[in-house]
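Annotators were shown the component list below and the corresponding predicted structure, then asked to write short factual statements about the assembly.
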Amino acid sequence: GAVVSQHPSRVICKSGTSVKIECRSLDFQATTMFWYRQFPKQSLMLMATSNEGSKATYEQGVEKDKFLINHASLTLSTLTVTSAHPEDSSFYICSASVTENTEAFFGQGTRLTVV
Amino acid sequence: GQNIDQPTEMTATEGAIVQINCTYQTSGFNGLFWYQQHAGEAPTFLSYNVLDGLEEKGRFSSFLSRSKGYSYLLLKELQMKDSASYLCAVLDSNYQLIWGAGTKLIIKP
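Structure shown to annotators:
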């Protein structure tokens, strides 16, 4: 199957700093990439959908100025958590698909801990 | 509203068969996915159904009935490594994935 690489897998940062998470599709071109977060023992929650070359579409309640998403190429999307706070500590997962209605392949996830 | 229902937890015995059900009510339907997620890891894709019927892939099979808003994931010859959460997700008319809360499957020797 297609491979999506997400980096870093774990990151610990100080409160107030920014963290960038990368999501790369290694062997296919991803028109659409999705960013999710998952709190312990809860389901995945979609944060935003990004299409290459256009602005991301954020879900209700997700602050676009805090969670900056860039999808500059067909193989790379980044999520930057700005001015991170302890409540931003979570598991962040990206997924990528060739088109909107094809299966999505997931990255390995990034466990963010803000101290 | 949109809703995906699946059992919270199931227990089965190694070597046996287990069926995990999923019912959905969504605004439109463009396919249903099953994912497997081990604790602390990202989900991995298992199956995608968009037409009614049974799709078999090795030990795993997935069934869909669009008229009933119903799907199931069937796991045969259970192995200990199959202990995981199984997530049902529906692609709605806006091509958004609507996720179920997941079914935690516990395999006992």
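Statements collected:
1. Chain B has no helices and eleven strands.
2. Chain B has a mean pLDDT of 91.
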